[in-house]
Structures are given as C-alpha cells and as structure tokens.
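Lab channel / #folding
Pinned by the channel admin:
"Please post every new chain as: sequence first, then the structure tokens as a reply. Keep commentary short and put observations after the output so the thread stays searchable."

First post following the new format, from NK:
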Amino acid sequence: MALATLAPVPVGTPAVLLLSGGLDSTTVLALATEAGYAVNALTFRYGQRHGVEIDRARAIAERYRVARHVVADINLRQFGGSALTADVEVPKDRDAAAMAEGIPVTYVPARNTIFLSFALAWAEVLGATDLLIGVNALDYSGYPDCRPAYIAAYEAMANLATKAGVEGTSRTRILTPLIDCSKADIIRTGLTLGVDYAQTLSCYDPSPDGTACDRCDACALRAKGFAEAGVA
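Reply from TO:
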C-alpha cells in the first residue's frame, strides 16, 4: 500500500488544479488543500456526453472552498473522434484483458494537452508555478496523455513557452501525486483525508441524473479500486 502525498507549501501558495468532478481529481484537490495550496480549480465543458460531471465539480469545489472555480467552455464535439464527444457507443462489460489492449474509443484526442494549456495560461496570470492533475499510470484506461513521459515533456515545453520560464523568474511544475498509485491506493488516500466519494462521478455513460452505468471501463476500474481497498 502506498498512499499519495504532496509536499507542504506555505499556506496560500496559489496553484491551478484540473477538476473533473471524478475520483482522481477530487483526491488531488484534497491533497492540495491539506498541503496548504490556495487552489484555483479549472473544469471544462468541452462537449462531453456526461455534462453532469460539471455539477459534481461545482459541488466539490464549493465543499473545499477553493480560491476560485472556473468552468471553461470549449467545444471538442465539433471535432468528434471519441465516444465522449461523438455519437459513438461507449464500450461496456469489458474484462481486464480487453481494457488493457490498445487505446480505447473513450480517449479524447489531445484532451490533457488542451486542458493543461488553459491551466498554464491561467497559472501565468495568477503568478502560480504549480499545476495539479490527477493522471494515473497504473489503474487507467491506456490513455497516452496520462503517462509520466508525457507529463515530463509537457513540463519542459511549459518552461519554454511562458514569460516567466524564458526570463527565469520562476519554473512551472506539473504535479501528479497519483501517477504511481493504484486506484485502491488513491481511494485509501482520499479516505484518510475525508473525501466523500459519493459526490464524485467516474462513469463514461451516466444517466441524466448522474447515476453510473456500472458497466463502462471507468465504472469497472472504480469498482475494482474500492474492492481492493476493502471499502463499500
């Protein structure tokens, strides 16, 4: 068992955190709050089929009393290319072997690259050097933009692309406290911090009222995590 951690910072240190309303990003928010950050949460209405996650993100941001919560509107549905942004069926009832094979149709092309670009721009305005994202390279669905190599490359790019980076006044960090954790470890971490996971939504194909389908890959990984953590 390896609980996720974030190093303490001076209380009120600004940071930008990508908040989807899901299990992982909510755990990172709890960690960041515990560490002392003044969190500026960024959520996207990007044309996803499960817009109910935005309501969950708002409720979670309010609970943690973030410094500011922005819901940014971008329309990735005009490009399509994913079961989350086009009229493509979400895969259901897949076993672990099927989920481990290739990149699934629920991958949204370049999503984390787009989201981190917005976060980087806002961080530069705020004078924040730390970006927080709940990517995970163990119990995940094979997305290329959740890997350590991707995060390292993006961080390097960020420090070439900003005024502060070029002038050498500060250095951007992309913090990924969950990247080496299993889903069970993430859940255990959140529970030690009092996270109410009933507020979160992981499902790729929820009903309009936010009820999870219990059959998609995200639901399966979430259920596996809770089972391994020994939590209902």
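NK: Strands lie at 13-18, 37-45, 68-73, 130-132, 173-175.
TO: also worth noting, The helical segments are 23-35, 52-63, 96-99, 111-126, 148-161, 163-167, 183-192, 217-229.
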